[in-house]
Amino acid sequence: MHQKVPAGVCFPVSPEEGPQSFIEHKAEGQPIHLFSLVMFQQRCSLAQCPQNLTRVSEFFLMSFSDDPELQSLLFGLFLSMYLVTVLGNLLIILAVSSDSHLHSSMYFFLSNLSLADICFISITVPKMTVDIQTHSRVIAYGDCLTQMSFLILFGCMDDMLLTVMAYDRLVAICHPLYYPVIMNPCLCCLLVLASFLISLLDPQLHNLIVLQLTCFKDVKISNFFCDPSQLLHLACSDTFTNNIVMYFVSTISGGVPLSGIFSSYYKIVSSILRVPSIGGKYKAFSTCGSHLSVVCLFYGTAFGVYLGSTSLPCPRKDVAASLTYTVVTPLLNPFIYSLRNRDIKSALRLHSRTVSS
């Protein structure tokens, strides 16, 4: 049994092929099987699925510049930023693990944050530098989902660790006498483990939403990595419900940790204001300076990415904000903590002397 189908209509080729297997018919009046037509109507209506729909087996990421003369410069810039980030965070991990004076809960959380930052930047920059060198911006559908999952995982891990570090500063300033008892090694390990398990849940929810998308209007992602919000914008089906769910999940995963940080610092500031001497206030608040700087940098750029992409989408501005969020923030974290922390600086000096001698 055959029926006629208009030109340019997309549909699954056969029952065996998955929902991402589409072909495009250019000749009007080409016969198709009734099963294919029914499956097509179920997957993608004519009003929602425009013509020129392509096979969803790969996506094309956005490049920073199409100028051939700038490719070598961009390659060297991003590669050097990646190497400096990895080296700086590894030095913090090495300093914390090798110096017995840094075996406390604050530096234990800092070393885990440095490890998360190394993983976070390693999700995007190596792929980006390879693309610049090979002049290719293609990423397979499965690789795109994998990159998105790990990016959300380690981004959420940063969120949770910053919240745990805020709680650590709260106990240290508001309950200094009970600090060694409350922040014992067992509790610290449990907090890091809980942060990791909670972070594992976030990418699974995003994957469930993205995997429900059965067709896409385009394969060009307006960013240098697979952003879940970009994939929703490319979907040809009605994604209103998916958008609501995704923004709700993002609000919970980002808003709840941020509210915990605000609550901790509200109590910290209230406690510091009761200190009589100005020197005591400065000494108490100086222990939070590095953490506050990282929190402002991380959340400021993160909100710039997601609020900017939802209100007034602008590909170039979104890429610049995403670059700050995924590359510049992990790059600056070791500098912020090493320059503002005397213990880290002294440990690094001691380690450099040991290596040189």
UniProtKB/TrEMBL annotation:
The chain crosses the membrane at residues 73-95, 107-126, 138-156, 177-201, 244-266, 287-307, 319-339. It is a multi-pass membrane protein. The keyword Transmembrane helix applies. One of its GO terms (cellular component) is membrane. It is found in: Membrane. Keywords: G-protein coupled receptor, Membrane, Olfaction, Receptor, Sensory transduction, Transducer, Transmembrane, Transmembrane helix. Its main location: membrane. InterPro entries: GPCR_Rhodpsn, GPCR_Rhodpsn_7TM, Olfact_rcpt. The keyword Transmembrane applies. One of its GO terms (molecular function) is G protein-coupled receptor activity. Residues 88-337 form the G-protein coupled receptors family 1 profile domain. Putative odorant or sperm cell receptor. This is Gustatory receptor clone PTE01. The lineage of its organism: Eukaryota, Metazoa, Chordata, Craniata, Vertebrata. The gene is LOC114503775.
